[in-house]
Structure formats: structure tokens, C-alpha cells
Amino acid sequence: xxxxxxxxxGCYKPFRELLEKIEFNPKKDTLWLVGDLVNRGxxxxxxxxxxxxxxxxxxxxxxxxxxxLIAVYFGLKKSNPTIxxxxxxxxxxxxxxxxxxxxxxxxxxxxxxxxxxxGVAPNIELGAAKYYSDVLQxxxxxxxxxxxxxxxxxxxxxxxxxNGSNVELERYFLGSFTRMRxxxxxxxxxxxxxxxxxxxxxxxLYPWFECPTKIKKELKIVFGHWxxxxxxxxxxxxxxxxxxxxxxxxxxxxxxxxRVVSVKCSDGLDPKKEV
Length: 275
Prior knowledge:
Elements lengths: L1 E4 L6 H10 L8 E4 L10 H10 L4 E3 L3 H10 L10 H4 L4 H9 L5 E3 L4 E3 L10 H16 L3 H9 L12 H14 L2 E2 L5 E2 L15 E2 L12 E4 L8 E2 L3 E3 L9 E7 L4 E5 L11
Parallel strand pairs: 1-2, 2-3, 5-9, 9-11
Antiparallel strand pairs: 1-12, 4-5, 6-7, 6-8, 10-11, 12-13
């Protein structure tokens, strides 16, 4: 059995409760994790330690909070109390190195799904997205990863420029894979708007998956990242972030039959502070 699980964000206790509820067995089952494994929740280290222990049974894509952890490790960002235990752990090198090996896009043609933390940009074909996921993955594993990540974080690239520089293209794909929510009609991204589509006041913006000019993908796109969107399942997309860290729920969906199982989270953060 394959199960996809929404953003964990360090909520170790609800995560283990969910695995127990779905009777997950790493010897015969597979977990797909949509990214944002860490940060904000109370058990980020425990989440990574457990996932590393069953790493042969998991498929992970990196989210913006996972990238933030790597940036802290490199000294590019300040730490916070929820990820300090990872950085102070005797296993930090092992865990960070393992994270750096993970992709930004996972594709399974047999199951019929592709998974990325924030989704796949509306004006990008799946083949191009896979190519750039591989590029980003290699960059993050390279000996120049710190320098590369600093360049990626120095500014945003909202436009896909086919003739742009490598830095511009890689910055665009990193942003689209990990931080995308809204876009304009022509497909260029807007990273500032973060709320629910039902509260959207800018009529020029669209959720990326409703972009009028989007390219139809041959696989159903599984993503997280967007807790104010919540759970959404339709023919072309499966949104799985149900706001566990904001005292919402942590959700698992079986693939390909799409049975939904959730657990409540009562030890998260104040949802009024959600961003």
C-alpha cells in the first residue's frame, strides 16, 4: 500500500498516531511525504530520526521549511527553537546529508501521480519539471551547495524565462516547487499572496492549478504547502496540507484508491498566526 501524507512540520506525535491509524508497515508499505517535514512543531528531530530509520520505505520531496533547515545548517539563516535540536544532534550531519539527497519532484507513472511540495508550475511540462528537479537535487548535493543556495535565496524569480541564465531558471524552479500558490493569467508566479482562494481579493490572481493558460499534465499532481487551501481532491490535483501544525489535522491518502484518513492535532500553534 502507498500512502501520501501532508505537511508534518515537526508534529511527531500526530504523525505516529496517523501511521498507527492507517496500520503503516514499512516492510510492505510506502510513504509519500509532500515536504515540510520540520519546523514549527515540537518534534522535528524525532520526525527526521524516524524517517531516516525507515528511509527505504519513503519517497520525499523537499519543501520550503526543509530548505530553510538546510540554509540554517549552512549558516545562511538564523535558527529557531524547533530546529535547534536537529542542529545540536550528534546525528545532524547524517540527517542533513540525507535531506540534501532528496528530490523536488517525484513521479510514478504506474500509480499515475507526480508529487511536489507546492505543485508543478502551470506553464511547465512535466518533463521539464523533472529535468530541473534533477538539476536542483544535484546542486544541493554538490560541494558548492552553500554558495548555490545563497544565490537562490538572494531574490525571487517569478517568471519562467527559457533563455534566462542558469541561476534565473534554477531560482524559478526552486520557488515553484517549494513556495508557489498563486499566479497571473500568463502563468508568472506571485509569492506574496498566501491566503485561501475564497478570501482572494485580487481578481488578477489565480490558484496555480486554475491558471487559464496552464499546460495539462499527464499525471495527477499531489502537493501540500497550502494549509489555508486545505484538502482538495479533483481529477487533476490532490492537495494534502490540512494544517496539522495549526491545530488542524494531519491527513493521509491511499494511492491510487484515494481513501482519506486523518488525525486531529492538539499541540500545534495558534491558527491565527498562520502564514
